[in-house]
Each structure stands twice: as structure tokens, then as C-alpha cells.
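pasting for the record
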Amino acid sequence: MIWEELQQQIDARERDGLQRRRRTLEAPCGPLARVDGRDLISFCSNDYLGLANDPALIEAVCVGARTWGVGSGASHLVSGHLAAHEQLECELAAFTGFPRALLFSTGYMANLGIVPALVGRGDAVFADRLNHASLIDAVQLSRAEHRRYPHADVPALVRLLEASTAKRKLILTDAVFSMDGDIAPLAELLEIAERFDAWLVVDDAHGFGVLGPQGRGSVAHCGLPISERLIYMGTLGKAAGASGAFVAASELAVAWLLQTARTYIFTTGASPLIACALSASLRLIEHGDARRSQLVRLAAQLRAGLAGTRWRLLDSPTAIQPVIIGDNHEALRVAASLYDRGLWVPAIRPPTVAKGTARLRVSLSAAHTEAHVAKLVDALRDLA
């Protein structure tokens, strides 16, 4: 029976330490959480700049609701593209330096829209092996050939491109890798895209707002020029503190995506009040050097505090600080011990990461204090 098969598969996930559990947060997103009546210091969220509960965004939402109501009422290409959306797209293009930007409801939907719009059967996508699930799914949806190169291995990518006879080629990569916290070699990837007449699609979910001058993202951080073959995707539910995503690119590329990206065309436009909040968020990001400096200090404090212990930290210059445990069950035990001490740190296991590399994923926020990180360091040193 199909129901018995499902139960057996769920039981197997439990036995292998792979079962996921959802907790209900009883407080706004922030460094201090409340779950099941317990107060915790949270190192789970991607609210890197601490904007998710910022008064300026809350006020912008209230003004936006009074001005535009709550819903957009239709897809963008029917009647759901409001002036608040248009203003935000113009602001995002100016902020990132690209000629034009296009809003999407989520980063996942943006990626599912971009790749199939640019390549299809007979084409090839060359993807970093550690790319996010949304990028993997996007390639499958496109029906293009999927060639994966070892993580950040530029010579291997070149060899794959040299051997390819595909009509159109697309290089696909995260900018900041969400489980390792490292940054893709974007300058080299753009040079390779130019050499092989390929698109370069960059998913900057975890770099936008955090990296680069004024938080303009990983492309700015790596000093890339604005190229016609560069497609830049940034999410707005992490450092920007709200929700949604955008694609920034040349006028022609954005015009093509507007006409062909199915996840843009066939879905209701996001709430206009969120667009109002994001306009306010962009201003805070641009003037948020103090927040970004706080992130750097906290990461240095964590790394220095765990030096000399058995815990291995990956070489991450970002707000994502993975602590490698290895075994699934041990990662769960360590996370549970931290939880008992009032510290909420997620245990990440396969298939999100490779087998044998289960880890704690410490996500830092500018809203954390040195005291918060000190408590985490003390607990991890004790557990080591």
C-alpha cells in the first residue's frame, strides 16, 4: 500500500537522523526568540542586518497599506503592477547599477523563471555542485543539459565548456553558498562567460545587502563590471528584512524575462505594501555600514572563541558560519544540548549538505550582541 511505503520512508528518515521538525516562533523575527514558551537566543535566521522588525519598515508597511491596500489583485502583466512596484524596480536597478530590474514573489520563483527563459533543449547549463536547490530545480525545468563542476573549480568548468557543443551556454552559481558561507570566484566566472559566449547567472541570496560597498552585493564586492551577459538575482527576504526577490540585468534581458519567465507571468503580484517596506529597507541598507561592521566583528569573535577546540569552522568571510560536526545524530545531539542552554542553532544534514558533513549553521545578525555570541562560544567550548 502506498500509505505503508510513505510511513516506512518517514521511519527511515527518523532512523538516519534526517527527519525535519518545524517549530512555531512566538515572537517577531530577531535575535531573541520565544518557542514553546521558552526564551532563546536565535542563530537561525537570515535577517543579517536585523531589519525584519525594524520600525522604519513597519511604518512603511502601514503607510503602504493605507495608500495601496493589501493585495495587488492580479498578475503584473494584467493589472497587478502598481506604482509601488514600479518605484521599487527603479530603485533596485539604480542601487545595483544595472539598467533594469524585475520583481519576483520569491527567490525560488525567480530562479525557476530565469533559467528556462534563457536555455532549453539543445543548450547546456554549467552549474556549481553546491548550488541551491532552486537552481538545481531550475535546470531540470529548463530541459537543458545539466553539467555540474566541482565546487568553485574554475579549471574544471573551463574543461566542460571546451568540450561542449551546446547551442547556448549558461554558467549558474550561487554568489554566497548558503551552507558553507564562501563566495564564488565571480570575476573569473564572468571572464569565462565572455570567453565562451555564455550567460552568467548569479544568485546573490546571501550577499545582497551584506557584501560590497553600501551592501550592493557580491557582484560589487568582487568588482565586476555590469555586463550584458550577467544576470543578477537578489532576494529580499534575508538582509532586506521583508520578502520577494528581483532580477537585475540589461534592458534586453529583463524585457525577455518579462515576456517569457513563467513564474513572473502566471502569478499574482506581491503585495504593494511589501514593496513600500523594501523601498525603506534599501535606504537602510545603503546607509548600513555600522550594521555590516557589527557582522564582521561578531564573526571574528565567534571564530576566535572556537579556535583550538575540536569544532571545525569552514573558511567563511560572511554572516554564515558553519561548524562541522560530521555525523547526523551527533549534530542533532549538539543542537539539542545548545537548545537546552537557551541557544537555537539549526543542525543541517543531508541532502542539504554532503553525507558525513552534518553541521551547525550559525547565522549571525547585526542585531546580535557580543554577549549573545559569547554565550554561544562558551556553550560550544563546554560541549567540545
